[in-house]
Amino acid sequence: MTREQLIAEARSLEEPPSSAMEEFAQKRDRLAAAMNERFSRREDLLQLIGDGNQAMMEDNHRNHVRFMHSLFQRYLPEVLVDTVLWVFRAYRAHGFQLTYWPAQLDTWIELFRSELTPESFHAIEPYYHWMLIRQPAFAALSDQALSDAASDLQLPHGDAAHE
How many domains does the chain divide into? Predict the structure, then answer.
């Protein structure tokens, strides 16, 4: 799947109603704190994020709810797809494993189900479901981008002084 195909699919997501956006905004700090608390208790945390990355993960969770709130206010499929791809590349370069994202998205969905009204949950959950089931596509595209970046950084073969 290409970036353009992901964007085309993301166009089917509907902007949440203002009541859902307001509730999400009011609860976003509490949601991020609950997310960080849940993840800090995970026995597999180091396998998911790598050693020394807990502060980065916690910042990611706080930034995630801020980003999603802004996205809900003015939904642009390109911004969603490009941001997820950037996050995959950046965090994987720091040692986060592919298994982190499904674990994270599943936990967000659990939190939203328990903390948001049913109406708000049903308006917001499709975004998370969409990201969750497209994890293989995001992973493949970020793998390709990381591979391309590594190839670009390799020195040419031969003696550079004589070229």
Answer: 1
